[in-house]
Amino acid sequence: MSKTILVVGSVLLFLVPALSANAQEQKDEETVTVTGEVLDMVCYLDHGASGPKHAKCARTCINSGLPVGIKDKSGKVYLVVGEHKPLNRELAGRAASVVTLKGKLVSRDGINLLEDAEIIK
């Protein structure tokens, strides 16, 4: 991985827990269902990587603990976390595939988080 990917990944690893903690303080959370492509957030943010051609790399990155996300058909991207735990193990095998997740939507400063997410299908 390039130095840029490692830097972005490190920043996101610290950002996700902070967002999750702040989300608990926010009172206007809503439960939503999101259907979209499972993304490796580092490669997606660094160089727009997504889709079937990137699936193998995305699985590797997600399995290594880098942040996982989902991009819906409108192009909205969400960081994804389970209930006080990452969902990497559950989502790595579905990298670049379309899944449906249900969770609490929290948005702050332009960043979207699907918290307490669970896989629907």
UniProtKB/TrEMBL annotation:
It comes from the Bacteria. Residues 1-23 form the signal peptide. The keyword Signal applies. Keywords: Signal. This is Uncharacterized protein. The lineage of its organism: Bacteria, Pseudomonadati, Verrucomicrobiota, Methylacidiphilae, Methylacidiphilales.
